[in-house]
């Protein structure tokens, strides 16, 4: 299986947690939002990281927007950014 394969099956709860991670929520905030413990939020994050074979949550954010391109269109008015728009940006 290749890294970040979109064929993976996430549970409904993992999809919700992935969306909250993409929105920048911490484990504590995810736990509060979904009414469960911080350790459960951490475990969901770890499970999603493991399924995609990722090591960092930032990779999950990128994967989320790859899988949910419509969500990205809703967050950016107008068109999607192109690489040319970021040519002079230092990361």
Q: Can you lay out the helices and strands and say which pair or pack?
A:
Blueprint: H1 12-22, H2 27-34, H3 38-52, H4 57-67, H5 69-75
Helix pairs in contact: 1-3, 1-4, 2-3, 4-5
Can you walk through the features of this model?
The chain is mainly α. The chain has one domain (12-86): Winged helix-like DNA-binding domain superfamily/Winged helix DNA-binding domain (Arc Repressor Mutant, subunit A). Helices cover 57% and strands 0% of the residues. The chain has helices at 12-22, 27-34, 38-52, 57-67, 69-75. The longest helix is centred in the middle third of the chain and has 15 residues, at 38-52. It is globular. The mean pLDDT is 81. Residues 3-68 form the HTH luxR-type domain. Pfam families: GerE. This is Response regulator transcription factor.
Quick overview:
The chain is mostly helical.
How many structural domains are formed by the residues?
1
Helix vs. strand class: mainly alpha
Beta fraction:
under 5%
- The CATH class assignment is Mainly Alpha
Topology order in helix (H) and strand (E) letters: HHHHH
Distance between the termini: 29 Å
Summed up, the helix count is: 5
InterPro entries: Sig_transdc_resp-reg_C-effctor (IPR016032), Tscrpt_reg_LuxR_C (IPR000792), WH-like_DNA-bd_sf (IPR036388)
Domain HTH luxR-type: 3-68
Keywords: DNA-binding, Transcription, Transcription regulation
Pfam family, one: GerE
């Amino acid at each position: 299986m290749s890294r970040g394969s979109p064929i993976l099956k996430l549970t409904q709860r993992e999809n919700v947690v992935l969306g909250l991670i993409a929105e920048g929520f911490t484990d504590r905030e995810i736990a509060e939002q979904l009414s469960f413990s911080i350790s459960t939020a951490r475990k969901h994050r770890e499970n999603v990281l493991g399924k995609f074979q990722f090591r960092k949550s930032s990779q999950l954010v990128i994967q989320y927007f790859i899988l949910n391109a419509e969500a990205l269109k809703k967050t950016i008015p107008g068109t999607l950014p192109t690489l040319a728009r970021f040519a002079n940006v230092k990361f």
